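Supplementary Methods, section 5.1.

A reviewer requested that the exact input to the structure prediction be made available. We therefore reproduce it here, unchanged from the version used in the analyses.
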Amino acid sequence: MKRFNKKYLPLVIGIAVAAGIFIGGKLNFTDTSDRLFTSNSKKDKLNRLIDYIDYEYVDDVNTDSIVDVTVNGILDNLDPHSVYIPSEDMERVSDNMKGDFVGIGINFYTYKDTITVIRTVEGGPSEKAGIKGGDRILFANGDTIYGKKLQNNDVVKRLKGPINSEVNLKVLRKGEDNLLTFKIKRDHVAIKSVDAAYKLTDNLGYIKINRFAESTYKEFKQELDKLQDQGITELALDLRGNPGGFLGIAEQIVDEFLQDGKLILFTKNKRGNINKSYATSKGDFENGKIYVLIDENSASASEIVAGALQDNDKGTIVGRRSYGKGLVQREMELGDGSAVRLTVSRYYTPTGRSIQRSYENGNEDYYNEYYERIESGELLDEHKIQVADSLKFTTPKGKIVYGGGGIIPDVFVPLDAGMQNETIMFLKRRGFISNFVFEYLDQDRDAYNNISREQFINDFELNDDIVLEFQDYLNEKTEANITFVAYNEEIKHYIKATLANQLYGNGAFEEVINRNDIVIDEVITLSKIP
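The structure derived from this sequence is encoded token-by-token as follows.
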């Protein structure tokens, strides 16, 4: 297979997975603070070196940056998933894992040096105040927030603030002669971790989870209850591309499917202490049929869910081999607003297998394993997946499963060479499709006023001209010669899905895109088998 160009499939995918898959919350430190932070020569040496540089070195040096480099250097020599979070990133990271933030609730795009609303967050302060997609926000509390020198971070700082505080916005709206004024009270705004929940067939429901945050189980349970009220007896749980999150949240979701007393997982720390987690009697879908969708970017908590169900002979795992992360992190503050997420234990699936990939050859080699999977042909042919007989385990019903590097699905579905080709994935990741759709939609939003969400998803068809317009847009925005002649239909499908998202939100993208998804097709086929 031709080697993937890293320009179009950047290593940041792997790094993002590593940084984003914090699992913790259940573990307890038995060491006291006195034991953890006693003085010793190694710590004194580092402290003295920093003091010497501060007070004696010939030039002024930012020792804070030296400390940051030192911390990262130490963690790099441990494992790929122990990470340092600088103080300036803590709020963003914490908000993402908490599942909400305090703000006004908009998704925006900087269009011609102006903050332009793509969509308001459903139920958020801006939606309640009457802000609409396409609105240009020009002033916030009298301050100008447009112009070439304004960065997105500056805009966010001016729009965020303490809860219940107010911000006065002046907005330019097409069709209005004068600027509109809105007084918006800042409030908690949800960062949804459930992207979509709807029925694929009369009996088969679908829920897609993008991460395991504090709010994820509550979101998931609400959607599962709605689908059960609609009569589903089977569920497709889509964890593709899900980098993980809190271990406890994964356990709660697994508990919905497993009978009381079934082992979910166990963890083991450096002292050999084992902590086992079991399902309870509260699960509401224990008698339902479950399909878990995974791929090479499903990691950590996603693998806990898939592994627990697979090892208990519950449901069917569909897709491609998962990422392979079996380490547990705990977040610890460093006293200056920064923190470290340190690996404190390993987790094991119910049969006793660890699915952690080897990192003996260093972090770079660890992340490059992603490309090795591509080059080996594993993503296209299940027989190319390398397994070790020494890591073979058997489930209670006699199914053979393997440890040592991810969850191998029960039903393999290859990478879709059309919908997931390198060019389209690059255009999607870089925001070209989303930005084009915004500008296309902004030409005449009123044209969609009388088209319902259901009508758009089921019946609306884009003509081929939109693909030509997108090609012209790319030629204007980038000097790179990006063409997709062989994938015109796939591009058109992505444009429709993105258009649905910007018009209707709330899972509309997934409802459109899933209609051309071979993994979803496989699940629907499996659900029809008695």
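The radius of gyration is 25 Å. These observations are discussed further in the main text.
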